[in-house]
Amino acid sequence: MKEAGYDKWMQEESINVFAAAARSYCALIDVIDQHDSESIFSALERELTALQSGIISVEMGSGADQRIEKPRIGHDAWKALGSRIDAVIGPACWALADSLIRLGGKNKETEDASRARHAWDDFADIYRDLKEGVEMWDLGDAESRAEAQWHWRFGYEHHWGWHLMRAALTVHEVKYYLRSG
Fold this sequence. Notes:
By secondary structure, the protein is an all-alpha fold. It has helices at residues 4-30, 37-55, 75-104, 111-117, 119-137, 142-158, 160-178. It contains 7 helices and no strands. It starts with a helix and ends with a helix.
């Protein structure tokens, strides 16, 4: 049987690793307009992989004893962020969507083509959910960190995890299907 001390240490290590991955993803998105279409997909692939691998070991936890006021990114700010993301990834994602439609042979919109065209939404939703947790985490006290941990894990299971899977598939298709010819 494992000792409780090891389990506690491992959970603390896991959440610290994930907090760093969340911060890194948000930092990339904050400066996405400084990247070109060639480099951004490799950077996004690294960041999404780190998020996926990091969150798996993070337990839900119970959150704070009392609800903490969560910082919230409003709809207008989220939409502006989405526009910035789309300006960089949009051309490749639209080319992918067009290719997926042609590949389907029906010359009509498909679910995969729609996913590719709206990839900005996936990246912006991941950002919003992670950034809110990062801001709570950065408060530094135990209650805020417990709430951030709960927020990240719950969000992964019920919202941003789905967006991560869609975004990872789109990145993979752009890098290894569209750009490989």
